[in-house]
Amino acid sequence: MAERMQLCNISVNNFEQCTKCSICTTVCPVAAVTTDYPGPKQAGPDGERYRLKDPAYYDKMLKLCLNCKRCEVACPSDVHIADIIQRARMSASEGKRASLRDTMLANTDLLGTMANLVAPVANATLGLKPTKLVMDSIMAIDKHRTFPAYSRQKFTTWFKRNAAKEQDAYAHHVSYFHGCYVNYNFPKLGQDLVKLMNAIGYGVHLLDKEQCCGVALIANGLYKQARRQGQTNITSIRKSVNDDHRQVITTSSSCTFNLRDEYPAMLDIDNKDVRDGISLATRFIYNLVDDGKVKLVFKQDYKRRLAYHTACHMQRMGWQLFSIELLRMIPGLDLVELEQNCCGISGTYGFKKENYERSQAIGSILFKDIADAQVEAVTTDCETCKWQIEMSTGLPVENPISVLADALDVEATRQANNIN
Amino acid sequence: MRMDTVIMGGGLSGLTCGIALAKRGQRVTIVASGLSTLQFNCGSMELLGCIDGKAVTSPLEAIATLPQGHPYSKIGTDRIATLAEQAKSLLDDAGVIMEGNAAANHWRITPMGIAKPAWLTLFGHLHIDDLNQLPARRVALMCVRGFFDQPNGMLANGLKELGFEVEKIEFTTDDITALRRSPSEMRASSLSKHLVSNHALLRVADQINSLTGDAELVLMPSVLADEEAVRTLQSMVNKPLRMIATLPPSVPGARIQTLLRHYFRMLGGNYLMGDSAVSGTFDGDLLTAITTAKLGDMPLKADNFVLATGSFISRGLIADYERVYEPVLGLDVDADAEREQWTRFGVLEQQAYMGYGVATDNNLRCLKQGKTISNLHAIGSVLSGHDAIKMGDGTGVSLLTALAAAQDILGNK
Amino acid sequence: MVTEDIYNKEYDVIIVGGGVTGAGTARDCALRGLSVLLVERNDYSTGATGRNHGLMHSGARYAVTDGESARECISENMILRRIARHCVEETDGLFITLPEDDLAYQRTFVEACQSAGIRADIIDPEEARRIEPAVNPDLIGAVRIPDASIDPFRLTIANLLDARMHGAEALNHHEVEGLILNQGRVEGVKLFNKLKGEHVEVRGRVVVNAAGIWGQRIAEMAGCKISMFPARGALLIFGHRVNQMVINRCRKPANADILVPDDTVCVIGTTSDRIPIETVDDMRVTREEVDILLKEGIKLAPSLATTRVIRAYAGVRPLVASDDDPSGRSISRGIVCLDHAKRDGVEGFITITGGKMMTYRLMGEIATNAVCAKLGNTAACVTAAQPLPGSEEGAPSQSDLTKRYSFGQRAAIGRHGSLAARIEKDNDIDNALVCECEGVTVGEIKYAVQQLHVHNLVNLRRRTRVGMGTCQGKLCSCRAASLMGEMSHDVKRAQQDLASFLDERWKGMRPVAWGDTLREAQLTAAIYEGLCGLDMAVNTQGKEDQQ
């Protein structure tokens, strides 16, 4: 032990590397729009020293944190500021029950399952003015919000009926963690992924058992449930990666970030052995192309101007490069890289009535940038950014995988990769 | 992933080098572990401010007298004037409009009202060419009510010692008063986010115009986000108006970093913010790839690499209980071995550690176990042999070594 | 009262020394109705009072070797829990046995504790790990005892405040240059006002020498000889708390065997070295001391190996030669109260020394008894029963706080107890944070400057914790200096004071200037020298005494 003395200063969440330089405070989107929030430095490292002395120093204003992690990205000392804040919220909420509203928002899969069964009714009901007003006043879900439409058919249902049996024929294989959004709201993204992967010779498979990754559960304080679901997911992922030798890919930056980074940091789920086996689809495909293992051929007549928005968790992962570089391979695509600003939704945060105005104020810089960019659509790796940007700018928002699938010349790609 | 050049470090030197290379068509990626020390910059660049405690008036002449190991000496003192010109025009191209020239230092005025030698000062900020010829006599010093990151008393006192007649005038506007509700976030950077719209600026201008009486010059803390805001407010105020830097986080410093980053991205560069290089792969005297914390199993390969990771504060150098070392690539460093030698007893004495850095050959190429790594340049604060604090050469070394390395890289190709 | 009026009064008693013993004596004298002046050459609690662990001993540490001290400790410990609640954190402590220690000692230890009246419960190592997760998991034995953590700065000031509320006067930065002697009587003190550079004399019927290690020199001024044995101890402060309980080694007292959680930090110490009396003002910590402290410290709590060290400091314990031993070599363990009339034939002069911070109140009581005997005062001592200001019942509770972010208000209640009510907090500016690490507001600084004898930033730091966080004053020292400059209308002095403060902070950082502490220092230099040019504005020579 003696020989390891003072070679580094690392305690829980590394907060002692903080030199109090205050850089984090300059990038916090919440502190920029409200004086109620004490900013990441106070909420994080400054407050943590006092909370170590006495947990009573916890301040409830910490719940205003978006968990966008921009403070961590800006921090020159690698202090896990947002983790400290989320952890503090977690300890402070121990033993407390989440509200009905938070439980409902957090259980994206439960809500999804119910809604799918009655999709037309659910869509109609959730979209109706009286329903919205009830949600606004009783549930405190802001009336400006529109719940993403629920699909009549779940992705998994479609997959099992239409795609599953062909997948074994391919030479290579991946597992797909589709997430709640693809499953309940937007199966097309999953279908696009299958199309793309099949075109480059990869069979796509579902995990043995997939549950919601829990990102919304964490945000809404339902830690126990998040941990339970997380353990189920990691068990399935472990089987896929370690036993079946199938990498797990996703089409959601938030799911990916949660599975890889928040599980160990927030939920104490050990994922070390499989963390490298979980990837975002764009990163996975980029690597294949970069290594010369697969080729992508795009349509000759494809022509679009899109803006790429780096989702907060995407930036925290540092992977926007893969999506951007992959999109830049499309010859007809004029891609504008937007300056990295938070859209303000942060999962379920913006759905809550008390956060609505703050949420829109935070996003305003991004919305202006998008308007200035004069594009026909926006592309981003995060589904909640999609809702927010669509609602706030009126422009359609697509996942890079859908953009790629749309631009891909499937037949030519299959041929280029020698797939029959 | 293959690039022409990969730059480790996204501060002033890394961005300058990246821009210089991207401008010449190179594919460049910058790996930046967070925002840099530019966030503490005062809005001025210094070429050489001090030698042996004496202010330098003609930096180009003084540079010729620097010792062998100084980065300027390695670049070659005959190249300094040209590189300085190039640096200024590069900043200009990026939208960083600065005033000054390398032949003669001017004086910037610090947050404590002290005149320090500087080479370039950002548009709209107070600087004085000749302390015997002040630009005005009667000065109104605007103090933002409830803003504590400008030591107004010291600033006023310093200005008086320079020969100004100073009147301190406290003011506020609705926007400022609303911001003060936060016990912790009344920072220069927060003010800069709330003093943007014409309405907000007009409210500030109204205060200035109604309170400054017969003052010939109005000074205020540098809390305006960009040049446009500065120009707008200047046009609204009926007297000459200049900014003075505040304590960090610095608004002008952040502006410089943002403009350079925008420009670099516009030139097609990749800027990986919040990532950091963790190790490298060597092949003989060549660095062939680096891995980063975030990209994981996807190494960044390139023909050339640049180390611009900064000094201790930026963790380009690490001092632990036992030694000083370069953490990414294990490069040779110029540093004293024993801990007692790193520092001196008095806080204002010259501290030895300030001069530590990676060892380089005369082309700023790094050494590893005594051997030159021929495609790895070091630039900026990670270099040994200079002292940004006592010599006032930090930003100049960053800019000029960045350009020198870029030239070397482009020449190599 | 203006300083001149303070000089012109004649006092029943003048107390020399603003450590906790002097402050405790001043309080006791004032509560018994005497007119009191306390003088201190630097700041209150600058000497040994402010340079220890901040440990409120249960007495367990002395139980085996010195039963009398142990009994005094536990008795005072229980009193302080009542009268000084806002200075005390009731953490309890562990005495742990490591594999390399003799477990048989535990039995001796527990028996000794019990016979001194100290509760000592042997607990299972597993239980020890549960209640104190930072403890060395290899421990083979643990005893739980009623140790606690105490803030000596707060304790000293609370005693002084109470003395002042009962009519006493106190002057810091006043050095005793000599005593007024008249026909074998001490009749007052000759003072040097270091703030103004003036020499004055103040008269008192009795002078109490409570100057700690510097008491030898005060006694010499009256021609009396006391032999002091300065025992130097170095300590390290870590950036945050790793432990919630005091951790001691269950063995004979040795180097670096106590780790104390103090407010937001924790402190390991001490080394112990006899030093020559001439060197008691040199408090630089050496590399060897740092090495010993770390090496031993990680045996108590392994996580100290990777926890950032923010400061090192050293203090000198005033051990006194026993009057019973003519050779002058043996040390008196307990409290020493010398009536120099009986001992040396000098009337009107009393020395109170020896003892410990823990027993300051008892020392004050003993010294006051001696004073009262001389003055014919028969009032009884009430210091054990009456709470100190700040510790009365009905202190503001955390739940009274406003809905908005109120870190500063919370921290102030922690520091000032019920007196936090005196801090302005009704407008946004008074609520603004000056020191972000420690949550010190503008209002708290105003309160300290106006009511707690603050003349410079070091004074302010001791009253409020400004600059005591991990950054050691990076942004807050400039903000605080500005505020003080505005309040005193002497900006130039505030600027000089700022440089002195940064120098004082650096003195403690330098011995541990590696890792993040070195980074912190570089950033501080970049701000104050690079950005601000403070080095060019101040005179770096002839700084005021800022120890």
Description:
The complex is a heterotrimer of chains A (420), B (413) and C (547). Chain A has 420 residues and is an alpha/beta fold. In chain A, 52% of the residues lie in helices and 8% in strands. Among the domains of chain A are: 8-93, no CATH class; 304-407, Rossmann fold (3-Layer(aba) Sandwich), CATH 3.40.50. Chain B has helices at residues 12-23, 59-63, 71-75, 77-93, 152-162, 174-179, 188-194, 198-211, 227-236, 251-266, 339-342, 388-391, 394-412; strands at residues 2-8, 28-32, 44-45, 50-51, 54-55, 98-99, 106-109, 115-118, 120-122, 127-128, 138-144, 165-171, 217-221, 241-244, 270-273, 277-283, 286-292, 300-307, 318-319, 324-325, 333-334, 357-358, 365-368, 371-378. In chain B, strands 1, 2, 15, 16, 17, 18, 23 and 24 form an 8-stranded mixed beta sheet that branches. In chain B, strands 12-11-13-14 form a 4-stranded parallel beta sheet, with helices on both faces. A 3-stranded antiparallel beta sheet of chain B has the order 3-9-6. By secondary structure, chain C is an alpha+beta fold. Chain C has 19 helices and 23 strands. In chain C, strands 5, 6, 7, 13, 14, 15, 16, 17, 18 and 19 form a 10-stranded mixed beta sheet that branches. In chain C, strands 1, 2, 9, 10, 11, 12, 20 and 21 form an 8-stranded mixed beta sheet that branches. A 3-stranded antiparallel beta sheet of chain C has the order 3-8-4. In chain C, a hairpin with an 8-residue loop joins strand 14 and strand 15 (258-262). Classes of the chains: A alpha/beta (420), B alpha/beta (413), C alpha+beta (547). The interface between B and C is large, with 55 and 57 residues.
Short description:
The complex is a heterotrimer of chains A (420), B (413) and C (547). Chain A is an alpha/beta fold and 420 residues long.
Query: How many angstroms separate the termini of chain C?
Result: 27 Å
Give the biggest sheet of chain C. 10 strands, mixed
Poorly predicted ranges of chain A: none
Q: List the strand order in the largest sheet of chain A.
A: 2-1-3-4
CATH fold call of the domain at 304-407 in chain A: Rossmann fold
> What structural class should be given to the helix and strand makeup of chain C?
alpha+beta
Oligomer: heterotrimer
Low-pLDDT ranges of chain C: 541-547
CATH class of the largest domain in chain C: Alpha Beta
Helical content class of chain A: 40-55%
Q: For the record, what is the CATH homologous superfamily label of the largest domain in chain C? A: FAD/NAD(P)-binding domain
Q: What's the level 1 CATH class of the domain at 304-407 in chain A?
A: Alpha Beta
| Secondary structure tally: strands of chain C | 23
Strand content of chain C: 15-25%
